[in-house]
Each structure stands twice: as structure tokens, then as C-alpha cells.
Amino acid sequence: MADAGDMATSLVSLDTCAMEPIHVIGRIQSFGWLVSFSSDWIVNHVSLNCADLFGQEPHAMIGMPAIQFLSPSAMHDVRSRVQVLGGGGGVERVFEVDLVGDGRLFDLALHASGRSYVLEIEPREAGRRRDFVSYVRPMIERLREAPSLEKLCASAARHLRALTGFDRVMIYRFEADGAGEVIAESLNGMVDSFKGLHFPASDIPAQARRLYSRNLLRIISDIDDPTVPIYPATGPSGDPLDLSMSGLRAVSPIHVEYLRNMGVKASMSVSIMRRGKLWGLMACHHYAPLTLSYSARTASELFGEFFAYLLEQKETDFTLARRSASVRLHDEIMARVAGGGSLLEAFEDFGEAIGRVIPFDGVIGWVDGRFVSRGATPDEEQFRQLARFLNTAGASTVWSTDTITRVFEPAEEWADKAAGLLALPVSRSPRDYIVLFRREQLREVNWAGNPEKSIELGPNGPRLTPRKSFEIWKEERRGQSRQWSEDEIQAAESLRVTLLEVVLRLADAAHAEREQANRQQDMLIAELNHRVRNILNLIRGLVTQSREGAHSIDEFADIVGSRIHALARAHDQVTQKDWTPSSLYELIRTEAAAYAGPDTGSSVDRVVIDGPDALIAPGAFTTLALVFHELTTNSVKYGALSVPRGTVAVTLGRDESGALEIDWCEVDGPLVSPPTRRGFGSTIIERTIPHELSGSATVEFPETGLRARFQLPAEHIAAFGAPTAATGRPRPETAQTIEFDTAVHNGAALVVEDNVIIAMEAEDALRELGFDDCRIAGTVADALAMVETGEISFAMLDVNLGKHTSEDVAHALRDRKTPFIFASGYGERSVLAEAFADVPVVTKPYGLRDIKTALAQLAER
Predict the structure, then answer these.
(1) Which own/partner contact pairs does 110-113 have at CB distance under 8 Å and 24+ positions apart?
(2) How far, CA to CA in Å, does 205 sit from each of 46, 377, 491?
(3) What is the pLDDT at residue 328?
(4) First-residue to last-residue Cα distance in the chain
(5) N or C: which end of the chain has fewer CB within 10 A?
(6) Percent of the chain predicted with pLDDT > 70
């Protein structure tokens, strides 16, 4: 272990009834009042500060009926909540209650404590009403979008900080041994990060964790506030009032001292429950006193419960995904090796399939004395020793370890290759294995203090004394691999059963595989013979029919060769796409490019295609290739493409039945007259589509140029594309760019907005636009404080901030020559001062594009 310096870090919370003396159990925090009633509404306990609230001394209130000092309307509300509360262990809250009938409003919390009901009273938050609970739903909707547990926790910390205003909010996860780790956090930018720090189990002992499981929210508004005793200290039976569910309950002096050593003035924790067990905490720190209203705390508790639900949902989703992967692995393994042959014949693919479900660094197959390995593993002789050890470790189940050297000393020889292993026996007798290996994973664990330091006795009795300083202890763990998770071990067990099934079927499958292979070979030979004969017949027909139009051997060879090349080009286009439908645009352009002549210019530029592209099925593609080959050849020799000014317009369309309509029209070429005889090329153009594809073809010879119309039935069309420009190539869209000073992005961006959700939306947009450091202020005072730091290089100001406007902030930014834009829900510039008439404004509701436009306007000025 190495001492790495001092840092004030702790999540300790030793405020548990089982560990505290009466003077802590019987006290509450001074920002509220407490009264307990028996079932017949007789006062049993009161806090000593109740004289200020009810005008009666605490000892005089004991034994009195509640109706004598609670207003009738308040009594009605309390009784109604008792009805809702029933016999459960929850807490019911009532807001804005005229408690004593004098017009003063209070927030109440009610819970059962043994045979009593405890009523906790706090003053209603003054000023504008804020419905914090309404913020929770959109926050939860944003959490649902998190793609991973890590991002879910980070987003939850961020949202809870936005809801409550704490300087630091952490997601703290308990491990199996009671220790914990900060796995996510959100900071205000001015405090140190605790992310990644580990805390020993003694920091939050079992008694405290049990209390966290019952009371889901604990808060300390100011550690320096005095606490108030409860009168009487005990009931008639001599037992103190159980305040486990109390939100006002004073905390342990140990915990207060701990926070004071850290410099923390206020704290809050929200329990994260998973399937009835304490999974972790949302732990909040603030470095100044911070009072949260009941409504804010209620929203925080509700947010914590929803987060716990989403957390469990995400973990369940990941577990189901891993199980689905295991099922797919079973099917894949069966498909690969269950048909016959040795288990190790497809070992390479087999190992890859396992690695997608159970990550590893090396794998060994040991079947019937045959050794096969991949990756980082011991050699064959070293594995023979290991196999004998595995025979004693259990041959009928999966066996795993993340530190093999602890139980098998010879593993020290190959510790540089592997530190952990997971063994799958794949035979009835203990001899055959598939073994997965993982390399050593050197881990450096940062502890918030020495986790092995013995507990010291202090002035508070036989309990942990708070650390006076908090040193990060770095523990280096060697000789260990990454642990095999429970899901991975379950997947391995499923795989073991699969492999046993494979082994038992191998003998019978080998014979069936050979017979199947022979049948497949016969079918392939027959299919190949059929296709070769078809090709030979087609070529023979091309050779025979091409004799008519040739006047010499060279011309004959040229005609035949061009037609065969046309078929080859079409075949290439289809095979390059794995015999999937191919583009008609590409076919036409390919044929035009093949006949670009040095005297006539580029045929590609003079063949203009219009209309939606069509993906042609492979069976029809080669047929169309011959048709367009003949059309192009004819045009290059005699038609529009034979002279420099001629062009061909190819128009594609789709009729009501889904059939493809093709219109080939030549213009500005030589004068045309109907031919006196039909050659083979004309036959291909006029008869191929009707005969082979059940379509139609019409060829006309007006003087202005040849015109051919074709219709291809819908069964040969896989899909139609969007209409494109003349060449068929889509026009690239010009991306909007913003020229903005680099120095602006290097500073911090400030969002001044009093609505938390809108502020976070704006923050996300600015981060997407390149601002790495974004800060949020909800009031003019907070915004001005941030501007005064000199770190703000750009700001986005909401015009209206409740009772105030952001005009003062705008003046401060202008004085510092800091660029900024306004956001407004009014939709009019009249709400702005004349001095800011030149400042760009985005109107709510706005999006990323609106902010981009405003920034572009700002950059132009």
C-alpha cells in the first residue's frame, strides 16, 4: 500500500438507533417541530421548541387531545393521511396546512412509530411556489434513454443535483462485503471529484445500512445548527420514541464530526433499493448550509425510487440479453459441431462464438488426449498437470477462479500468460475440458483511508472514531484476473450442457453428415452442369444469330464480343452485391460508359436519366443488360450518340400496378427511318422483355430519333428509389458550418435559465456544438457570480427569470466583451432593452438548429 496524499473524502453515516445514546435518539434538528400521538389522539411526546409554535409549554401539552391545539382543518387532513397510511411503514406528507388556524402555512409528515403516530412539522417555503414533483417525470424520461448502467447513474447524479442544488451528488454502490465505491457523480465545478474512490465497510456499518433500507431519505441542513430534545425522553415503558422513519431526527455526533472534518456543511442521502435490498445511495454534499423544502425532498425521494426501478429494469434487460446470447451460443455451437466430426475441428470459430458471450484471453480444448489452444494459455505439458488438478476440482460442473496460483502452485510457471480460468468439463469421465483463461489484471484500488486500519476507541464510546484527515490509500492487486461474473458462470454451465449433448451425438452424426455431404455434392454437380449448359446454349445462340449483321470476320467477332461483355458486366454488378437486386441507373450508366467514343464525346454525359431508380431482381437484370446494350450500340452506330450534338433521354416511372415503365427517346441525331429488315439486335430489343419477363416492348422510328417503351412487371422490381438528378447520383447536402472563435469554445459556456429541464436541454445542445464546459444558473445572482469569475466565454440567457429579467447579466457580459444570445418565450423583441437590439434571439421552443443559426449570426457580427 502507498500513501498518496490527503483528500477530504467520506460517505460515512453512523446515525443508527442501535449505536447512539438517548441524547441523540431523543433529539431532532431545529428547523422543525415534532409531536407524537397515541391512537386516540392524545399527545405522548413533543419537541421542546413546540412552545414557539403552539404557545404552550411541552410539559403542559403531554396528555392533551390534539384537537385542543390543532385547527379543525389540520386535524381533518392528519386523520385522512392516517387512513391512507394504514398499517404500512411509509411516510405520508401534507403540504400548505393552516396548522393552528392563524393563517401560517406548514408542511407536515406523518408516520407510525410503534403504537404512536409521529407528526413532523416544518414551515412552508416562502415565496413563489415551485412544484418540484412535476420535474421528476421529464427527468425520468431522460433517464430512460441512457444506453448503459454507467450512463444511467451519471445522468441520475446530474439530474438530482439540478433538482436540489447540492455541490456534489454521488451514486455510491455497495459491494458484497459491505465496502462501497463512488461509480458516478455530478459536481458544480468548484469541488473535488470522488469518483472511483472505495470506502471500507466500516464507514457505513450494517446497522446504518438497515436504517437506510427503512428510511429512504436523510438530510442535514446545517451541521452547526443546535438540536432540540424530545419531551419526555422516554415513554411510560421506559423506551425512547423510535424515530427511525423521522426526517427531522438528529444524527450521530460521530457523523457530524466526520462531516465537519471534511468541510461539509449540509448533506442528504437517498437510498437506492433493488428487490428489497439496499443497492447503494445517492449521496449529496454541500459546502454551505442548505435547506430543502418538503416538496423538494419529496421530489428527491420520488426520483430515487424511480431511478431504482430503472436501474433494476436496466440490469434485468442486460441479464436477459446475456441469457439470449447464451441461447444463441447454444444454437450456434449445435449448428457448427453437432452435425459430425470432432469437437475440435471447428475450434477457431467455436472459440470466437464463446468469446462473444464470455470474454477471455485464451482458450484450450482438451478432448480425447488432443490439445488445441488459442490466445494466451499454458503450453501442452503445463496443461496436462492442470488437467489432473481439474479432475479433483469437480468434473461434473463448471469450476472457476480469478487467482489460480492460490489453489494450484504450478500455475506460477505460466502466471505471465493467465491468472484466472473457467473450466467446462465436456465428457462423462473427468478427462475432457474446454478451459477459458484470463490474463492478470493489475488493479489499483483507491481507498478513502486505510481499509485495514484497526478501529480505535474514542470519546464517544466503543465505536469508530472519525478520521481527522482522509488519505487516499492505493492498493495494488496482482496475480488476479477480472472476476467471472455470475451471468458468465451460468452461461458457461449452459454451454457445458450443450457440449455434452454434442459429444453424445457426435458418433451418430458423423455417418449422417457423410451421407448428407454426398447428396449435396451430387446436387451441386447437377446444378453446375445445368448452369454450364444454359450458358453454352446462350453463347451458341449469340454466335449463331450475330452472323446476319456481320460483313466480315472482324465485325462478327466485335459484335459477339460486345454482347458477351454486356452479359459479363451485368453479371459482375449482380455478383458484387451477393446476387441481390441491382440498380437500373448503374446498369444504364455502365452500358453508356462502355460505348464512349473518341469522336462522339462521352456517352455517359449525353445519356440523361430521369425518374426514380429501380432495384432489379438478379434474374431479370441480365435480360435488361442485353436490351440496353443493343439500344446503346444502335445509338452509337446509327442514332443520336453517333453525332456530337445528339442525346438520349431515359425516363423511368411506376404505374398503378407497381410495374416499371422505361421510355428511351433519342433526339438531335441523324434523321431516322424504319428499318427494312430486322436483325438480331432488333429482336433482342423488341422480344426479350415480353418473352422472358412477361413484360411489353414497343419500338417506334420517328424522323427525330428512335423511341422505345418498355414495361417490366412488378415481380421483377425489388424496390424503387427516390427521384434523382440527371446522372442518378444524389446531390450532397451542404452541411451548415459555423465559423466561431476557437477561444470561445476553450472557455466555459453559461446557460441562464430558471427551468431545470430547459436548462439541461440547452446544455446538451451547447456540448454538441463543441462547448466542453457548460454551467447552469437559475437566478440573476448566481449568473453574475459566475460571470465575475472571468471563466465564461459565451452565454445563453433566458430573458425572463420569474420576477426578474437577465438584463443585468447581459450588461455584465457586454462589459467583459463576452458574446451571448437571448432565449425568449415571448416571441417579441420588445421585451429587450434597446441596448441589446443587435443580440440574436432564439424563440422557445427552440432546438439545436435554432441555436446554430443564432451562433452563425453572432459570428457574422
Answers:
(1) 110/78, 110/81, 110/82, 110/85, 111/85, 111/245, 111/246, 112/85, 112/87, 112/88, 112/245, 113/36, 113/241, 113/242, 113/243, 113/244, 113/245, 113/246
(2) 30, 42, 34
(3) 75
(4) 58
(5) C
(6) 75
CATH class of the structural domain 553-723 = alpha beta
User: How far, in Å, CA of 439 to CA of 431, rounded?
Assistant: 24
Taking only the tens place, the pLDDT of each residue in 197-256 is 877 777 777 778 888 888 889 899 999 988 899 999 888 788 888 888 888 888 888 788
pLDDT band at 190 (very low <50, low <70, confident <90, very high): confident
- Give burial (CB, 10 Å; 0-12/13-18/19+) of 697: buried
Distance CA 356, CA 489 (A): 14
**DSSP letters of 126-192?**
PSS---THHHHHHHHHHHHT-SSHHHHHHHHHHHHHHHH--SEEEEEEE-TTS-EEEEEEEE-SSS-
Question: Considering Cα of 523, then 524, then 530, then 531, what sign does the dihedral take?
Answer: positive
Which tens digit of pLDDT belongs to each residue from 622-664?
A: 788 888 888 888 888 888 988 988 999 999 999 988 899 999 9
User: Using an 8 Å Cβ cutoff, are 661 and 711 in contact?
Assistant: yes
Grid cell listed for 396: 461434473
More confident residue, 790 or 861: 790
- Alpha-carbon separation of residue 653 from 242, 482, 564 (angstroms): 82, 61, 29
Beta-strand runs (E) in 26-125: 27-29, 33-37, 43-47, 91-98, 105-113, 116-123
Interval 1-24: pLDDT, tens: 333 333 333 343 333 333 333 335
Paired residues of 111 in beta bridges: 91, 118
Mean pLDDT is lowest, of 468-472, 512-516, 646-650, 782-786, for: 468-472
691 or 539: which leads in pLDDT: 691
- Encode 134-159: b = buried (16+ Cβ within 10 Å), e = exposed: ebbeebbebbeebeebeebbbbbbbb
User: Using one digit for the tens of pLDDT, what is the confidence trace for 139-186?
Assistant: 988 988 888 888 999 999 999 999 999 999 999 998 877 888 888 999
User: Given pLDDT bands bounded at 50, 70 and 90, which one contains residue 551?
Assistant: low
**Range with the poorest average pLDDT among 84-98, 549-563, 687-701:** 549-563
State which H helix or E strand residue 352 sits in.
helix 347-355
Query: For residue 611, which amino acid is it?
Result: G
CB contact at 8 A, 545 and 680: yes
DSSP string across 12-28? -----GGGS-HHHHTEE
Indicate the pairing of strand 266-274 with strand 217-220: antiparallel
Amino acid identity of 736? Q
Cell, residue 534:
444454359
**Nearest one of 681, 584, 679, 654 to 625, comparing CA atoms:** 584
789: how many CB neighbours lie within 10 A of its CB? 12
Total Cβ atoms within 10 A of residue 427: 17
Report the CATH superfamily, name and number, of domain 18-123.
Answer: PAS domain (3.30.450.20)
- Helix H or strand E encompassing 511: helix 486-545
Instruction: Report which DSSP code applies to 730.
Output: P
CATH number of 742-860: 3.40.50.2300
User: CATH 3.40.50.2300 residue ranges in the chain?
Assistant: 742-860
Do the Cβ atoms of 58 and 51 come closer than 8 Å? yes
User: Are the C-beta atoms of 333 and 463 separated by less than 8 Å?
Assistant: no
Calculate the alpha carbon distances from 605 to 569, 609, 646, 647, 724 in Å: 20, 10, 11, 9, 15
- Kindly report the CATH class assigned to 338-440+486-509: alpha beta
598 pLDDT more than 80 = no
The Cα–Cα gap between 576 and 597 comes to 27
In the beta sheet, which residues pair with residue 711? 661, 696
Residue ranges, CATH 3.30.565.10, the chain: 553-723
Look at residues 663, 666, 549, 648 and name the one whose alpha carbon lies nearest to residue 592. Answer: 648
In terms of phi and psi (left: phi > 0; alpha: psi -120 to 50; beta: otherwise), the region of 186 is beta
